[in-house]
Amino acid sequence: MFNGLLNQRTTVPQTQVDFEYDGPCMKTSVPGPRSQNVGAINFFCNYEESRGNYLVDVDGNRMLDVYTQISSIPIGYNHPALLKLMSNPNNLSTFVNRPALGILPPETFPDTLTDSLLSVAPSGMTRVQTMACGSCSNENAYKAMFIWYKNKERGHNTPSDEDVSTCMVNQAPGCPDLSIMSFMGAFHGRTLGCLATTHSKAIHKLDVPSFDWPIAPFPRLRYPLEQFTRENAQEEARCLEEVEDLIVKWRQKGKPVAGIVIEPIQAEGGDNHASPNFFRSLRNIARKHGCAFHVDEVQTGGGCTGKFWAHEHWGMDDPADIVSFSKKLLTGGYYHKDELQADKAYRIFNTWMGDPSKNLFLSEVLNVIRRESLLEEVARSGRALLNGLYELQVCIRKRATSFTIIYPSILTGRARGQGTFCAIDVCDDATRTSILLKARNKGILLGGCGERSIRFRPALIFKEYHVHLFLNIFNDILAKHK
Amino acid sequence: MFNGLLNQRTTVPQTQVDFEYDGPCMKTSVPGPRSQNVGAINFFCNYEESRGNYLVDVDGNRMLDVYTQISSIPIGYNHPALLKLMSNPNNLSTFVNRPALGILPPETFPDTLTDSLLSVAPSGMTRVQTMACGSCSNENAYKAMFIWYKNKERGHNTPSDEDVSTCMVNQAPGCPDLSIMSFMGAFHGRTLGCLATTHSKAIHKLDVPSFDWPIAPFPRLRYPLEQFTRENAQEEARCLEEVEDLIVKWRQKGKPVAGIVIEPIQAEGGDNHASPNFFRSLRNIARKHGCAFHVDEVQTGGGCTGKFWAHEHWGMDDPADIVSFSKKLLTGGYYHKDELQADKAYRIFNTWMGDPSKNLFLSEVLNVIRRESLLEEVARSGRALLNGLYELQVCIRKRATSFTIIYPSILTGRARGQGTFCAIDVCDDATRTSILLKARNKGILLGGCGERSIRFRPALIFKEYHVHLFLNIFNDILAKHK
């Protein structure tokens, strides 16, 4: 039934991941007897035995990992290049002596930054600030935008005595009523500042005090995007209009929008896409109204969309004022334009300010990405994956329409993606849960997002043959689903 | 001139740090020619050559480190036990494969937790949540307190539809108007939630939106504490009264206090101490008013006060509902009582939830602390340090009163400390800056805190002979200060 894909499998050029296993291998259902199931824990892992795209659990089950620790493993488990780095005695000190990077950086740190983060800096940005995780990156990016906005407002003059005294007790004007605009469905982290811009699931936000900040609608597009260009353009225009209205409204409220934060693809919120044109227009609206424009690439960054940054798909020289990252970059942080640099030392600061040992790994990850042309690989695997998902949708639907009604119509025709950053929608949440569990027991690890989406977040070494292996197993699961 | 101390030096039992250098060795002024001086950066370091209590910079200057990366290096640089841990091939995988700890922990993680964090759990606490840094630890601790408070308020019933829908758009009742009480002079981090409870320096807070949360006065005590017990008790009573008034006032305002957060010694805010009795009373007030009690041990924890946790000096079986940590513990996180456990998975969550490689180091640090009885060492070094600081104060004052007026009265008689967590006050900020720079050029690294304090934050392997070495050099600096 999967002829197109099976044919492809023998004709495309294959690149292998030579340090990994040759397929899933299941010994028990998961979680198995040796995994204790507590809270959010899925199961316990044997990271020593995990290789490449395969995660091994404590019961010896070996699963093809299409979720990669919530999209945070760039080049698979136990990559030889990273193990080799660990065996170099010159690197030991970086692991053992974690510095207060903001005041006492290692001699080699500027070079490490040049080799790692700065070598993949987004267009127009030559500055980067490292942080320990994604939330801290966004929190500090927001602070950088607030500081920038207020400095602009006071004409770069010294803050008044009133500013200084009121800020100490959390009051305006020192702690001003500024806001960050975010979008419904967004996820930017869970610390209190970030959480005020996160609107993906109630469980993240319930019971936590927040800020009265504007929330714009994110376009709800129809997929495949190419088939619905006109409807989608209308929907995007509606959202952009609302963005401008909200900026004006919040200015009138006395809570001006200092910055707008957005994901290039809303991930946690359900893999919601928007067109390059939408983002270009939004960037212009931000500029027009004097708001900083912050692109959150914590989940989209690092190559999984087939470009190193998802915003590169927009084709802009000046895509953003701030780009934050974490996950696949192994260290958190944000790039920023010169003018977003805080005017004084210690305004953006904490004890660790990141972790140089993570930059060391990142340098090596970037070497592997370049040496093995992994972005091209991702683009190729991504095409195979998305085509396979399209076929599955049609396949299942065909069955439904040809009255093979013992299989319900499970997939709802919303397959979408960029690179291997793909998703499909399932008819309802219960079916999704059931499919995710069945897939896991067949040796395929997947994750959910949004209300009824399944997200694909493989490592950058997920090749076409992994795609086919996945599609064959997944097809079986769907076919047998009752 | 330092006879008392010099005598001691030859009579006390000496324990050596056998992997370190025998003293400071300065080749240039600091920052030297190879250090670029940008923003907050003090100078660039050669961590490979640093050993024990000695930090070496890129120009080959070797300094006795009494600041230890803002108090975050527990057992000195390049400790052999930590280097050995790195050379164990069984540990490599933990560094190379960072998991999403909340969902896919390594098989060994429960044991690692038992060996590390849980082996030093505060009294009454059997649960710990790891996080990546101090700010994230406090942010999540605050969330845990809000969740606990609201669950209590709604009688542990399911949240209403209105709760669920309003929280998605940052509005009450889903995002309730709850508050965290903090103290003037406090420092709890710089992300937006933490920052609303930080009140140490304007530069941290200026231009960042905040919450209208109550801020109580922290006792301003006179030192040495033993000499001013009556005045200090009065001052503490005044502050405690204000705490209760504020709790009532904020409840009436509709912003009830869900939790009270406090440092056992206000560190960044100027090494402000309070008595065990103050903290015991505060803990009781929190209980009486149904507020959670959160002790922030990010800077005080890990042994530097001569006990593993500073709150142990209060002598309580039930010192807190939450104790947060980071820095010397190498991983962030917080301990909490059972009832502060969030009622559902994913309420307290993020991608990494800490970093198991840091727990691996921590296990070994704790082994070293036990094996070498470092808490007793800290208590002994701390007594020598505080006595030395008392002598210096008197010494300088004597000179001033005996009309040797070419030396001004530099120290203001406020030497204070617990273990090696000590501080002195200098007459003014400019003098402090000058003394810190002079000390650095003589091979002694110190830090400032508050408006005019110098804080001492050596590693736990700072022995009595390091104290004497420091005191001799510091005495010279003060004597020559103009």
UniProtKB/TrEMBL annotation, chains A, B:
Protein name (record): 4-aminobutyrate aminotransferase, mitochondrial
Major enzyme class: transferase
PROSITE patterns in the cross-refs: AA_TRANSFER_CLASS_3
Swiss-Prot/TrEMBL GO biological process terms: gamma-aminobutyric acid catabolic process
Organism: Echeneis naucrates (Live sharksucker)
Keywords noted in UniProt: Aminotransferase, Neurotransmitter degradation, Pyridoxal phosphate, Transferase
Cellular component aspect of the GO annotation: mitochondrion
NCBIfam families linked: GABAtrns_euk (TIGR00699)
EC number: 2.6.1.19, 2.6.1.22
Domain of life: Eukaryota
Similarity comment text for this entry: Belongs to the class-III pyridoxal-phosphate-dependent aminotransferase family.
Function: Catalyzes the conversion of gamma-aminobutyrate and L-beta-aminoisobutyrate to succinate semialdehyde and methylmalonate semialdehyde, respectively. Can also convert delta-aminovalerate and beta-alanine.
Cofactor(s) demanded: pyridoxal 5'-phosphate
Oligomer status and interactors: Homodimer; disulfide-linked.
Cited Pfam families: Aminotran_3 (PF00202)
A GO molecular function held by the record: (S)-3-amino-2-methylpropionate transaminase activity
Catalyzed reactions: (S)-3-amino-2-methylpropanoate + 2-oxoglutarate = 2-methyl-3-oxopropanoate + L-glutamate; 4-aminobutanoate + 2-oxoglutarate = succinate semialdehyde + L-glutamate
